Amino acid sequence: MKDNPPALESFRQRISWDALDKNLIEKQLKICVEEDLGLNSKDETKWQSDITTRYCEITNNGSAYLTAREPMILCGTLIIPFIIKAFGTQQVTYTIKYNDGDDLQRDDIIGILTGPINEILAIERSVLNYLQRLSGISTSVLKFKKKIDKHGVGLLDTRKTTPGLRLLEKYASACGGSFNHRIGLFDRILIKDNHLAAAQATHGTELENFLRSVVRKNNSNCIIEVEIDEIEQLEAAINSGVDAVLLDNFSPTLIKQAMMKNKNRVVIEASGGITESSILAYAKAQPHFISTGAPIHSSRWVDIGLDWK
Questions:
Q1: Quick one: 307 exposed, middle or buried, by C-beta within 10 A (0-12, 13-18, 19+)?
Q2: Which residues contact 178 (CB under 8 A, 6 or more apart)?
Q3: Could you give the 3-state DSSP secondary structure of residue 308?
Q4: What pTM value is reported for the model?
Q5: Is 188 in a helix, a strand, or coil?
Q6: φ, ψ (nearest 5 deg) of residue 291
Q7: At residue 44, does pLDDT exceed 60?
Q8: Structural domains in the chain?
Q9: Cα-flanking dihedrals φ and ψ of residue 180, to 5°?
Q10: pLDDT at residue 37, as a whole number
Q11: Taking Cα atoms as reference points, which of 225, 243, 219, 237 lies closest to residue 189?
């Protein structure tokens, strides 16, 4: 069998916090502020729009402990300083106890928010929402990854993400151990079945020639991947010069056949409705990667509390 396909390492990429567009995160947080404090909260003390805390006349300082109430893979701690800034609660400080990607047990203290209690209460919900959502994704991803690791198959995420939260959810996916597939329509060429149908190039010579034309036009050096839904399309796809082939809704048996035919000429990705209960069967067929949106779109929020001490 040949060495690994040339494009294999290009699929083994994980987005880091430093690589995230912070401008997009700040735009998202503006929506959080408006949701909680109202559309007119424009000044530097917008946290004062929390009328419950204001009428309770809570003005003293305190420390709030963010506590894991179940085992989890932590994600979301690095967004907390951005939340503090967005809500105008500059007197609040955050002390880190654990980092994104850490494996937490029940009752572990994630970190401590210290400062005016009324300001901490203003950001409580947003802080917990991001931590619970993103940690839920990371925790779910690791469960999928553990099922396939021993078969040497990599896990990929998808673009099935919450609108507006894609970068953060893909970051959470990476914290859980998944590799990141393309971020959007701009960073990788993925020719899907609808593209082939629209071009009337679904089989044989027509398919191969169409894909060759895309390869020739690729001045950006982007990875080129094509989605096929029949094994009869595989050889034409490989011969065209694309970097990868996505097997859409193939059975594990057909995936194994495709891997034998491929002989490591291109990267093979298996996808299509793969869940936590079915992923092991697909991993046994040993494609290079399995992609599934389930760890993101079907994960549950983990339980994290804010406790005063």
A1: exposed
A2: 14, 141, 144, 145, 155, 156, 157, 295
A3: strand
A4: 0.94
A5: coil
A6: -110, 140
A7: no
A8: 8-14+147-297 (3.20.20.70), 22-143+300-308 (3.90.1170.20)
A9: -95, 125
A10: 86
A11: 225
The average confidence (pLDDT) of the chain is 94
> Both tokens of residue 24?
């997009």
Q: Is 215 exposed, middle or buried (0-12, 13-18, 19+ CB in 10 A)?
A: middle
The CA distances from residue 290 to 150, 284, 296, in Å, are: 14, 11, 14
61 vs 46, 104, 160, CA distance in Å? 18, 28, 42
- Take residue 158 and report the two structure tokens written for it: 């998808």
Cβ–Cβ under 8 Å, residues 104 and 73? yes
- Tell me, what's the pLDDT at 57? 78
Name the pLDDT band for 183 (thresholds 50, 70, 90).
Answer: very high
Residue 259: φ, ψ to 5°? -65, -40
Q: What is the CA radius of gyration of the chain?
A: 23
Distances (CA, A) of 125 to 10, 50, 80, 87: 38, 12, 11, 12
Instruction: Tell me the percentage of the chain whose pLDDT exceeds 70.
Output: 96
